[in-house]
Predict the 3D structure of the following.
Amino acid sequence: MNYPNGVKLHKQKQINYSNRGMVLEADLNETNNYYLVNDIAVIHKKPTPITIKKVDYISPQKAKIKDAYFQKASTTDYNGIYRGKYIDFEAKETKDKNCFPLRNIHEHQIDHLRKIIKHGGIGFLIVRFVNYNKTFFLDGKDFMNFLKNNKRKSIPYSYFNEKGYILEIKYNPRLDYLKIIDEIYFKGEYYEEKISKN
Amino acid sequence: MNYPNGVKLHKQKQINYSNRGMVLEADLNETNNYYLVNDIAVIHKKPTPITIKKVDYISPQKAKIKDAYFQKASTTDYNGIYRGKYIDFEAKETKDKNCFPLRNIHEHQIDHLRKIIKHGGIGFLIVRFVNYNKTFFLDGKDFMNFLKNNKRKSIPYSYFNEKGYILEIKYNPRLDYLKIIDEIYFKGEYYEEKISKN
């Protein structure tokens, strides 16, 4: 589970989870911000779902949450709109060298992606293998095909090499995943050309 | 601001905000669940955005949030997919009898809705006047037209009567807003007919 920025560790076993997956998340937030300010797409990360148990009302305007817990996400982390189409994806980092363990994605999230694809949306995964510093775009249909044809609890690295698209880290946008979507879903009609025409 | 279910009031000025807007929210959650289980649409409420300041790691699996604050939402509360189209809306209750005060919707949320419409999505408001127990669907384009042509800080009730669509409360789905979308965006080709054909 990824914790939002600014989480301070406190008391007890000080295990530092705070950096887990945060680099990829930061890259994607920058990318989405580039798409937003350049009017290319509107794609946001959803807030982390939390169950709130106790709130202090410091003033009518200010409430302090004193007791709350992280929930399991029932949908993916990112969604939005691009070229009129609904976009939906999950992004994960793995330290594994040979595969992407499927325990990283909850069953609910897989069901959600399956439904999105069925309803005509564009669903996919972005997976970073931190040891190779390689980031892949895996289209939702290829992800679903893998799950249908395999009983394994992980997707081998070779499957990403075969079916995935490499996302090179660039200056701006950091991880240009819409370029891959243009290629797969819009016959390579790249949005950059649209911008330069304006 | 709406607080999620299960919020317990604690210490200091015990102002009960917990019921504000919760009835409409519950109606919409039920409606969205009906759409989901009947495979009509995939539309979810986003989690409430929170800034986390302090976390206790009780165990590697369990983290307790000890200090956090509610954030202003930068997008709307609900989004998803229907008939391949991107759906995005905000839902609000008002106790006002004559108008819907625009302070209920942040500037960021209005900008967000404007962008969604520009990118080809279906954006709208659902507003309930609790005193009349009337719930309106106001299409995003009519909302934007009002803002463009008026300097007022509220939308009069008469504007909802003129431009909005009444959402009757039914047994299931509670507030069938997709029927309105069928009427406006899909030439009245109702999804119920699609279901009965299956």
User: Anything to note?
Assistant: Chain B touches chain A through 61 residues (CB under 8 Å). Residues 73 and 195 of chain B are 35 Å apart (CA to CA).
